[in-house]
């Protein structure tokens, strides 16, 4: 019988929800309670879902109340703990969260509306709910035991006054510094199992001996193909070394946890573990945190690694374990591994175990450290088949004990499975998840299919079965193959992991739960309810047409599917005032419950769609083509873009979307669509501040000041008549990229285009570097600061991700072109001003020329100088550049010569080319590398034959028809970046108006102030925002200025129809 929810049950749920929300708020405010944030969020979601349960309501309510009480106990004990949570505690919390995730998945299934959900609904009984409770109770009890021990030990040490790092009064202060680290529990390997007793003995013994005995090799690299069991071995050894007190830290890279696929999470996670596992290192780690200071969260990786990890380990014999290095992004893993290898000369007692696939770049770095043990998947080795046998029998033990399989059948399975642990594990999962395990086993053992000898054939068998079976595992459904493919397309194409309900909404289906259930052997539902690929080999299988056959996932088609789903979701769910904000007087961040409103009113699918639809449109363009363009054109018309901007404002995603718009607008051939996309981009750039700061001002501040011929303004102006009217001072069109880009306060000495031509970097005598958008001429973020003297040269890396700069402070700096953060320590070696810097074509080296008359080469990853300085010039080196193949360097000097150098040997090639008449200010090699162009102040431009430098002195060949003017970067320093040599600046002519002012206070508001960031406010209430070019004219509106589009333009506003405050939504008709 289906019971009706009673008022008593609802009161219980409401009380539990209130308690959980208070705990979540507390966890966000206190560092020591940080681990509870995700836990409390999961319990809140579970409780909210239980509201909709129809069957076994009383049992679910009891479980929900029980969970709420448990996290309250955890909160109370963490609050009274005087030290930061140990790694063991964090691992228990992580496991507890996984158990909560299982409960959430089950309770969601009971509220589902689809065919399969109803089937599971009917099978959910008291016993199963009791099992869920017992699972989570086990974790809770484990936590309570460990926290009790930690509290008692800390209290005892404080009382006894033991004078060591962990127990002294100073240690309490140290704890506050350690709490500033942001470790990632997902990187500690909680997802992995340890080795079964009696398995992997050969490789385990080798690695144990490598650590135990006086082996001088500090690195052991364990490498094999995907799915061979490397992570299990790493987890096993980590546990052993932790018990023995040898473990410094472990870090498990994992593509299913995006925050662990780059180097950023490494230092904090490792440093936090070092502090917990090796307490004597705490003072050194704290010293490092203090040395970095308040910029800890944005500190360059190299500096953080040096100060938080390497220095503390200088005289300590510990082991670091780094698992699945191949699952870290290639550029990041190269930086990480190079820096770790370089540090071995400092930390001479450190040993590092690294596991990975044998990727080319990793092999180049670690090849000499490779473990000599036999392959972990070689079928010819008896030890491998033996290990697989033990594993299979262990996994099938329950089925044998319950009589569903015989021991003989399990032995046959073990003998048939090829020597690859992922294959054995997947086969066991397939059988375990089946309602008829013996029948499923017989299918897999069919020799004609060879499913147990090849992981790809096993994947094929799993997918084939999923397409044939309904919830009883028998009947077929003609729609099943399409459903399976579409769900897999969504999971593979997703820019971030998605929940079952979000996938269903984006696909317009109710089949995701069923598909995920039948593919449980290859898909994983995480504790937060999102679905991910269980192992990277399954993704690789699906993307390979030869292996997957009819199940092949065409990535462009998958992105088209997701793009359509995102657009449909936005069309259906976007609306005016989606967060139901009562007033326009506050910034988003000042609304007390703003985050709760975002979660409540902006669904997960809408958040995803608004953030990522442009990604999917871009990646599907080759397939979707003009049909996609029509769909996008339909969306960008009318008021939809403004409603979309509301969500972007709420999520803080406006900067990301600006980059995406630039990408998507570049390949549409339909002019109207290109113009509309460009108009949206211009609108976002012009009103970035009000859009980002306050959702209501997308309408009441941005529309009135938009260019009169803007598509957005023309299409929505009649829809929103109750806004202020800008009578004078509003431009007809969006401004063209300015002839002069103003921002620097000193002379501009060097400029460089990014490889894609979308950005310009400028270096200035004001000690800063600025980045500019080439389309709009607007600065992109704040200036890059770090040099202590004039900047003489800037250059982009070939991939556009980094910038190098050379300065009169005699240093070279690397910068992240996206974030503007300095990368590592300055490169030092020159003894005079740096005049020129440039990247090699592969981005791995930098060449620099200096006033000390030398040229130097640098490794971009390590920051080390490559060899000694290149000597030969007798005066300042003004310009340096690589040849296209990276094998040569050309340099120009004030000694009036040009030289060519061999990058491998550092030796000059041939005799110098002599200009005789003047200093050489600029040099560059032609794309084919056969010619050199040079420029000097009075000798003009010259073209040289580079090949003759190999044998004899070069001859100059002036050719004004082939060579463009090359001007010295310091010939005409100014405080602007100019895109032309025009000397025709607009003159400003002022006429007096005879009207009193000021005119920027709306009726009913007194003491209005115009702040430096453009906000007009009254008593801390935001009234409206004013663009930069209108602020002067708004305050001095008695001046009539020509031309009317100058930055001092007169601005007059009519407030007759102005709706603001609690009436702001009345701006719409």
- Helical coverage, percent range: 40-55%
Low-confidence runs of at least 5 consecutive residues: 1-5, 113-123, 157-172, 470-478, 948-998
Look at the structure and give the mean pLDDT.
Answer: 78
Q: How much β-strand is present in the residues?
A: 15-25%
Strand runs, count: 36
- Classify the oligomer: single chain
Radius of gyration over all CA atoms, rounded: 33 Å
The number of helical elements comes to 37
Strand arrangement within the widest β-sheet reads 1-4-3-2
What spatial form do the alpha-carbon principal axes imply?
globular
Termini separation: 50 Å
- By secondary-structure content and strand pairing, the structural class works out as alpha+beta
Q: Describe the sheet with the most strands.
A: 4 strands, parallel
Fill in the keyword field for this structure.
alpha+beta; disordered N terminus; 4-stranded antiparallel β-sheet; 1069 residues; 37 helices
Structure description:
There is one protein chain. This protein is of the alpha+beta class. Strands 1-4-3-2 form a 4-stranded parallel sheet. Helix 1 runs antiparallel to helix 2. The protein is globular, with a radius of gyration of 33 Å.
What's the SSE blueprint?
Layout: H1 7-29, H2 36-50, H3 57-79, H4 87-110, H5 115-123, H6 126-160, H7 169-178, H8 201-212, E1 219-223, H9 230-244, E2 247-252, H10 266-277, H11 282-292, H12 301-310, E3 319-323, H13 330-343, E4 351-356, H14 360-366, H15 382-395, H16 397-401, H17 407-416, H18 421-433, H19 437-444, H20 455-468, H21 480-493, E5 498-499, H22 500-507, H23 512-518, E6 523-525, E7 530-533, H24 536-542, H25 545-548, H26 555-573, H27 594-601, H28 604-619, H29 621-636, H30 640-651, H31 654-664, H32 671-686, H33 688-693, H34 697-700, H35 702-705, H36 711-716, E8 725-728, E9 740-742, E10 748-753, E11 759-764, E12 768-773, E13 784-785, E14 791-796, E15 802-807, E16 811-816, E17 827-828, E18 834-839, E19 845-850, E20 854-859, E21 870-871, E22 877-882, E23 888-893, E24 897-902, E25 913-914, E26 920-925, E27 931-936, E28 940-945, E29 956-957, E30 976-978, E31 989-992, E32 1009-1010, E33 1015-1018, E34 1021-1025, H37 1028-1035, E35 1039-1042, E36 1052-1054
Parallel strand pairs: 1-4, 2-3, 3-4
Antiparallel strand pairs: 5-7, 6-7, 8-36, 9-30, 10-11, 11-12, 12-13, 14-15, 15-16, 16-17, 18-19, 19-20, 20-21, 22-23, 23-24, 24-25, 26-27, 27-28, 28-29, 31-35, 32-33, 33-34
Helix pairs in contact: 1-2, 1-3, 2-3, 2-4, 3-6, 4-6, 7-11, 10-12, 11-12, 12-13, 15-17, 15-18, 18-19, 20-21, 21-26, 26-28, 26-29, 28-30, 28-31, 29-32, 31-32
């Amino acid at each position: 019988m289906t019971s009706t929810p009673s008022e008593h049950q609802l009161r219980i749920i409401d009380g539990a929800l209130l308690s959980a929300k208070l705990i979540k708020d507390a966890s966000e405010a206190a560092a020591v309670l940080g681990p509870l944030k995700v836990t409390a969020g999961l319990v809140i979601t579970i409780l909210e879902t239980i509201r909709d349960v129809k069957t076994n309501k009383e049992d679910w309510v009891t479980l929900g109340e029980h969970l709420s009480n448990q996290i309250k106990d955890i909160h109370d004990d963490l609050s009274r703990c005087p030290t930061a949570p140990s790694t063991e505690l964090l691992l228990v919390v992580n496991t507890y969260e996984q158990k909560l995730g299982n409960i959430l998945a089950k309770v969601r299934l009971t509220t589902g509306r689809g065919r399969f959900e109803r089937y599971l609904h009917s099978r959910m009984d008291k016993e199963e709910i009791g099992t869920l409770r017992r699972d989570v109770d086990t974790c809770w009890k484990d936590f309570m035991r460990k926290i009790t021990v930690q509290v008692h030990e800390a209290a005892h040490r404080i009382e006894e006054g033991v004078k060591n790092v962990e127990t002294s009064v100073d240690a309490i202060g140290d704890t506050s510094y350690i709490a500033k680290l942001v470790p990632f529990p997902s990187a500690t390997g909680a997802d992995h199992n340890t080795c079964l007793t009696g398995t992997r003995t050969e490789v385990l013994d080798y690695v144990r001996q490598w650590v135990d005995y006086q082996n001088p090799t500090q690195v052991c690299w364990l490498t094999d193909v995907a799915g061979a069991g490397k992570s299990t071995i790493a987890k096993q050894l980590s546990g052993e070394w932790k018990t023995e007190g040898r473990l410094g830290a472990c870090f498990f890279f994992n593509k299913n946890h995006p925050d662990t696929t780059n180097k950023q999470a490494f230092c904090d996670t490792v440093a936090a573990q070092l502090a917990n596992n090796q307490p004597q290192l705490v003072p050194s780690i704290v010293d490092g945190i203090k040395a970095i200071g308040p910029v800890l969260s944005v500190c360059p990786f190299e500096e953080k690694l040096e100060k938080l990890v390497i220095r503390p380990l200088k005289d300590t014999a510990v082991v670091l374990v780094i698992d699945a290095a191949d699952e870290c992004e290639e550029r990041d893993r190269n930086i990480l591994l190079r820096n770790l290898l370089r540090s071995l000369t400092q930390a001479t007692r450190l040993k590092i175990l690294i596991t990975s696939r044998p990727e080319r770049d990793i092999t180049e770095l670690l090849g000499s450290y490779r473990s000599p043990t036999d392959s972990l998947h070689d079928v010819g080795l008896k030890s491998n088949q033996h290990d697989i046998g033990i594993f299979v029998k262990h996994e099938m033990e329950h089925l044998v004990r319950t009589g569903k399989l015989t021991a003989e059948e399990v032995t046959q399975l073990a003998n048939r499975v090829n020597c690859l642990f992922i294959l054995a594990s997947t086969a066991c999962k397939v059988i375990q998840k089946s309602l008829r395990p013996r029948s499923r086993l017989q299918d897999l053992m069919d020799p004609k299919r060879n499913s147990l000898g090849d992981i790809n054939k096993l994947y094929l068998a799993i997918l084939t079965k999923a397409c044939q079976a309904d919830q009883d595992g028998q009947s077929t459904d003609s729609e099943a193959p399409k459903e399976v493919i579409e769900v897999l397309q969504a999971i593979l194409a997703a820019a971030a992991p998605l929940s079952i309900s979000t996938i269903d909404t984006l696909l317009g289906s109710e089949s995701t739960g069923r598909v995920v259930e039948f593919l449980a052997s290859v898909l994983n539902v995480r504790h937060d309810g999102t679905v991910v690929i269980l192992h990277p080999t399954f993704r690789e299988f699906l993307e390979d047409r030869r292996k997957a056959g009819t199940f092949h996932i065409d990535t462009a088609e998958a992105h088209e599917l997701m793009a359509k789903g995102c657009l449909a979701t936005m069309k259906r769910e976007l609306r005016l005032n989606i967060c139901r904000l009562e007033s326009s007087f506050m910034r988003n961040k000042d609304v007390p419950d703003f985050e709760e409103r975002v979660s409540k009113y902006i669904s997960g699918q809408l958040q995803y769609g608004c953030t990522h639809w442009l990604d999917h449109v871009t990646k599907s363009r080759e397939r979707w083509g003009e049909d996609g363009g029509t769909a996008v054109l339909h969306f960008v018309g009318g008021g939809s873009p403004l409603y979309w901007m509301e969500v972007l404002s709420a999520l803080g995603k406006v900067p990301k979307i600006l980059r995406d718009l630039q990408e998507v607008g570049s390949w549409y051939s339909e002019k109207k669509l290109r113009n509309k996309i460009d108009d949206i981009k211009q609108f976002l750039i012009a009103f970035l501040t009000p859009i980002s700061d306050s959702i209501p001002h997308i309408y009441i501040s941005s529309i009135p000041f938009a260019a009169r011929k803007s598509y957005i303004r023309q299409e929505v102006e009649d829809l929103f008549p109750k806004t202020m009217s800008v009578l004078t001072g509003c431009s007809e069109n969006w401004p063209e990229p300015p002839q002069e880009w103003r921002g620097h306060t000193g002379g501009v000495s060097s400029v460089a285009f990014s490889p894609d031509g979308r950005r310009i970097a400028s270096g200035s005598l004001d000690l800063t570097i600025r980045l500019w958008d080439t389309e709009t001429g607007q600065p992109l973020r704040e200036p890059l600061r770090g040099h202590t003297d004039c900047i003489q040269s800037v250059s982009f890396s070939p991939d556009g991700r980094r910038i190098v700069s050379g300065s009169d402070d005699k240093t070279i700096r690397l910068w992240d072109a996206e974030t503007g953060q300095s990368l590592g320590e300055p490169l030092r070696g020159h003894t005079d001003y740096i005049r020129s810097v440039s990247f090699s074509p592969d981005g791995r080296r930098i060449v620099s020329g200096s006033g000390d008359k030398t040229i130097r080469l640098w490794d971009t990853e390590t920051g080390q100088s490559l060899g000694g300085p290149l000597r030969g010039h007798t005066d300042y080196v003004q310009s340096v550049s690589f040849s296209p193949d990276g094998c040569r360097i050309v340099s120009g000097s004030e000694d009036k010569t040009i030289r060519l150098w061999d990058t491998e040997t550092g030796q000059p090639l041939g005799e110098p080319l002599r200009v005789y008449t003047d200093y050489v200010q600029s040099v560059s090699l032609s794309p084919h590398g056969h010619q050199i162009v040079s420029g000097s102040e009075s000798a003009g431009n010259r073209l040289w034959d580079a090949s003759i430098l190999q044998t004899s002195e070069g001859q100059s060949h002036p050719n004004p028809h082939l060579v463009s003017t090359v001007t010295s970067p310091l010939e005409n320093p100014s405080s602007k970046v100019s895109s032309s040599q025009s000397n025709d600046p607009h003159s400003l002519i002022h006429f007096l108006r005879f009207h009193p002012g000021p005119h920027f206070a709306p009726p009913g508001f007194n003491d209005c102030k115009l702040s430096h960031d453009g906000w007009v406010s009254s008593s801390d209430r935001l009234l409206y925002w004013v663009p930069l070019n209108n602020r002067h004219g708004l305050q001095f509106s008695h001046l009539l200025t020509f031309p009317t589009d100058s930055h001092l333009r007169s601005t007059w506003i009519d407030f007759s129809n102005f709706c603001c405050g609690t009436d702001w939504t009345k701006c719409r008709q």
